[in-house]
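Notes on consecutive records. When two proteins share a document, each keeps its own sequence and its own token line. Never mix them. Below: protein one.
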Amino acid sequence: MLNFCSLYSGSSGNSLYIESQNTKLLVDAGVSCKKIETALNNINIDPASLNGILVTHEHTDHVQSLGTLSKKFDLPVFVNQKTLDAMPKQRDKLSVNNVKIFNVNENFEIGDLKVHPFSIPHDAANPCGFNIYKDNKKISIATDIGHMTNNILRNLEESLFILLESNYDPEVLRCSAYPFNLKSRIAGPIGHLPNEIAGKTISHLLKSGLKSAMLGHLSKESNFPELAYQTVLDELISNNYDENNFSLSVASRDKHSEIIKL
């Protein structure tokens, strides 16, 4: 058993849930503790039963309630040292015993899950995505990607499921109310991933066995769920994908997804 559920995903806050028979994990805690508790309860998961929280990077939309959640439920936090040092407000809430340091690009285990963190280009201290393995099954989490790299592609290959960033549409971003410097950051090499590149990435991954993808971390101001979905779908159609053998969905910013069972 290897299941995935997006609790919240978007520029306003991110938290994902992954479980196997014996292990339950959160990836990020970027909304309030109350919201995460509510979402977990809605899928019949007791927050106190979690085996830990994985941290991708220190931006608030990924760690807003990290310290509070860890303290309230006595949860281990798995984080690399540079990311921990870059979020003193959250770090200071953590019990020393609950800080579990990992090195990016080095495997580690939590319960019966194997985790492989890999580097991503983003304007944070040491940001990463995650491959999570159970037996011969692999799922991957990759958001906050300034540009797609061969290293990221290699890490995503052979995944059965991915949660992949599809943050913005270039034309909607250009016409948005964001100031120029923010537009430049989002579209820059250490910003976020546009819809079209998400589509090209998924098309590439179909060749290595991808069965399901969920588009995540959509911008509220420079994207629309329907636009992200259609842009990616158009890219898949142009690559002659098999619609009977692949599932595409979009994660919501304010409610949990269906549980993806692999």
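Protein two starts on the next line and is unrelated to protein one.
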Amino acid sequence: MFLHNQKMMFTVRVDQPNAQFAKMLLEQFGGPNGELAAALRYFGQGWAEPDGKRRDMLLDIATEELSHLEMVGQTLVQLLKSSPGAEVDEIESGYLGQLLDGKHEKFIEASLNSGQNLLGGAGPRLTDSMGNPFTANWVDTIGEPTADLRSDIAAEARAKLVYERLIKYTNDAGCRETLGFLMTREIAHQKMFEAALDAIMQNFPPGRMAGDAKIAHVYFDDSESPAQQCEGFELATPAPGGWGFDLRKPADGGAQPPPLKPRPKLQSRKNGAAKSPG
């Protein structure tokens, strides 16, 4: 059960409305690396997680992601104040008079820049910044904790980078503070997922099958230049805790496939020849 606490985790403030930046920020509302996708990903994993500690962690982070979704949504609402969608009634009521007064540039700019914001009015829509609707295909869970936690770490890293880029695209001090808080929480979540992964004994490779030991530590050298072969990799005896790889050309140990046997030729019966019985 969820109870809505009207006090948000961080005070959301926007100094100036900006419909164009709101369009970019939709990436973190209904996009593949956004807060809704993260919440659904971690809820799905948490509900199926048999380990009590990991289950609590996943559900706690999923719940926090919903609070982040609320923060992004409230930021979008403030950015969209005085946007074309929010003022559509006002524009329609004064449209003809303002056109006659020579203010048609305002409406041209609105039509070019509003995009999906016009359809959502003053509220955010569940799309990414390009207008693609949210899809469950963005929730990548495979049902194996060691694989899912690695995916979660990568998802938080991608979200952190998106927030970084968004911060660079706005000079609004209030908006930057909110985005900085959200970006920092992505770092915290990465650390939590990495700690949970480290707590799993023998967490690599994912799953229950170890694979073929003959090729599990083989580095296939697909580079033609011998001077650049495997720079930076330990290929012989590894240091304690290192991987160590056996250098091998892709063809080593392999064989060409056997030639195909020719198919028997099909010969037509001579004209007038009788069909064989049966």
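For the record: Residues 19-87+134-198 form a domain with the Ferritin fold (CATH 1.20.1260.10).
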